[in-house]
Amino acid sequence: MKIICAECSQEARNNAAVFAPCACGGLMQVEHDYAGYDVEELKHRFDERLRDRMSPYASGVWRYKELIAPELEDTSIVTKYEGNTPLYDANEPLLQYAGIKHLQFKAQSQNPSGSFKDNGMTAAVSHGHSLGYRHFACSSTGNTSASLAMYAGWIGAEAHVYVPGNDIAMNKVLQTLAYGAHVYPFEGTYDDGILYLEREADSLGYYVCNSINPLRIEGQKSIIYEIAHQLAWKLPDWIIVPGGALSNATALGKGLMDLYSLGFIHHLPRIAIIQAEGASPFHKFMHDQGNPHGTLQPEEHPYTIASALNIGNPPSWRKAMRYIQQCNGITASVSDEEIMNAKAIIDASGIGCEPASAATLAGLRQLVENQWIHPEERAVCVLTGHMLKDTHAIESYHLSSTCKNPFANPLQPIHLSI
Ligand SMILES: N[C@@H](CCOP(=O)(O)O)C(=O)O
User: N6-(pyridoxal phosphate)lysine is carried by which residues (predicted)?
Assistant: First the structure.
């Protein structure tokens, strides 16, 4: 495994310097040498591991270890058997809402800490653990922090978590605290926390577990490996992901390129990244043909009810842009109202998700309406977080006294005459 700058290809000065940006400002990325891999043999091996219940290979991430971190010793793996999440067929109301005929939901929300972060976090924490780190850190809107806190607790290490003091879901902060992390609320957004950690992590002895860490991306690639495996290595036309820090677009894009170049799949699906209108710097950048700087303009005051997407300066935007170009992907943005309506439909289907995840269905509906996606095409929406991650959002949608929300399901008090 080689760790190089994704922009200038400069090699990292050592294996421990993975999360510090390169001198040129670029993020690091992992490069593997897959030469000599036999795809049919690997497929067989991955199938065999589906029978495994107790070894690290029972994890939906480490099942694909050869593609993620082949050199990592098995004894260093820190796993909660993450991944292994269901791929649900959409029911009739979901199909009607989306406006297409073939739709599935990859419920990353069913991970051990309740979000997709676990797929990448197991890889980052395992790597840090193998290097002997005992202090792990992140800036977070809540899911990354809960995931890190869970893995750190699992190995008796310390998690140091920097969370914005406002506009994040309290359930996520409580989950992080309960897992035993040190939680430091601060004035500012996720973006400020990242800048702080980029500057201070070294002197504080932290191993940083945000998605600026390329091992996070390696682990997160397993989401697309697992979808492909579940579909007998035949991917749909579209993969729809929410876009905040853009780690999903980056990881799923990188994973797709692995599968395609190795010959697991023979056609590349298109990725659609859906941002929330109040926090959509990447969508604006991709649509702004006349951008004089050719660089993303950060949003200083991002705000959306989908608090996981409250990010004004997504660190991985350059990587995400390249993968979007390679797979002919597109971006869209949706309003908070569209997000919450889509969430109500997903929740009522029995699948459930947090607001950020519902941006996928809202975006899909918009892209079908605008004829970017044909009703006959097949799509998978990636649901990133569990519905109980943000009960405040549920309360304000369903229980507001002036409720005009079209899919709200109010309480119906009743007097029981017993
Ligand atoms: N929604 C995320 C923010 C992005 O975090 P990262 O792990 O991609 O750096 C969160 O839960 O913190």
Answer: 117
